[in-house]
Amino acid sequence: MSYNDPLIALFEANRSPEVAGPMAAYMKNQFPYLGLKRPVRDELQKAFFKESGLPPVQDAEAITRELWQKPEREYQYFALDLLVKLKNKLPRESMTLFQEMIVIKSWWDTVDLIASKLVGNQVQRFPEFESLMEDWSTGENMWLRRTALLYQLKYKQKTNTKQLARFIESNLGSKEFFINKAIGWILREYGKTNPEFVSRFVEEHPNLSNLSKKEALRILNA
Q: What is the residue range of 18's domain?
C-alpha cells in the first residue's frame, strides 16, 4: 500500500458533489473537485497525518507526482501542504519538481503557493537559484513569470529590490491579467516593509498598468 492510498480513500469517503460544483465554478471550471472545503480538508488531513505521519523526505517527489496526476484539485492541495511541511528538508533538486508543478495543471490557486512558500524558500536555501528566477522572469511561460515576480512575497526586509524592479520592468506592457495582478501584489506586499520604495517605483514607472498601479497603492493610499 502506498502512502497516498489511505489519503485517497479518506478523501473519497468524504466526497460532496453538491459542494464540488460551486468550488469548480469558482475556479472557472479549470479542474473537478471532490467538494472538500478548506476547513473540512484540514480536519481530514489532520486525522491522516496523525495516523500516517509524514513520509520520508526522499519519497515526497513520488508522492507529489502521483497526486498531481489525480483529476480532483484537492489532491494537488494536499501535495502542496505536504511539501510545505517538508520544505526545509527538501533537496536542492526539488526545484525541478516545483517547476513541473507550476507548468502542469497551472492556475493561480496552486502557483501562488508554490511561488511564495516553496520556490521562495528554496531560493533562500540555495541562492544560486536566483539565476533561474532571472530566466523565468522573461520566459515564455506566463506562470513561471508570475512565480518569478511573486517568489519574494514573504521576504520583507530580505527582498532583493534591484532584482524585483528588473523583473517588473521586464514585464511592463504585458496584456496578461495574471502578470499585471502579480506586479501590483508584490509591490503592495513589499510596501508594508518599504513604502518609500513602492511609492517611488510607481511614480517613476508611469507605464505600469492601471491594475498594477491600483493594487500597488491600495494600502498606501488607504
A: 1-86
Pairwise CA distance, residues 10 & 218, whole Å: 42
Domain count, the chain: 2
Position 161 scores a pLDDT of 98
Residue 222 is predicted with a pLDDT of 66
pTM summary value: 0.96
Mean pLDDT, residues 22-45 taken together: 99
The domain that holds 195 is classified in CATH as 1.25.10.90
- Residue 53 and residue 136 share a domain: no
The reply to whether 64 falls in a domain is yes
Q: What does the pLDDT look like over 50-64, one tens digit per residue?
A: 999 999 999 999 999
Q: What is the mean pLDDT of residues 196-205?
A: 98
For the residues of the chain, what is the DSSP string, one character each? --THHHHHHHHHHT--HHHHHHHHHHTTTSS------HHHHHHHHHHHHHHH-PPPGGGHHHHHHHHHTSSSHHHHHHHHHHHHHHTTT--TTHHHHHHHHHHSS--HHHHHHIIIIIIHHHHHHSGGGHHHHHHHHTSS-HHHHHHHHHTTTT-GGG--HHHHHHHHHHTTT---HHHHHHHHHHHHHHHTT-HHHHHHHHHH-TTS-HHHHHHHHTTTT-
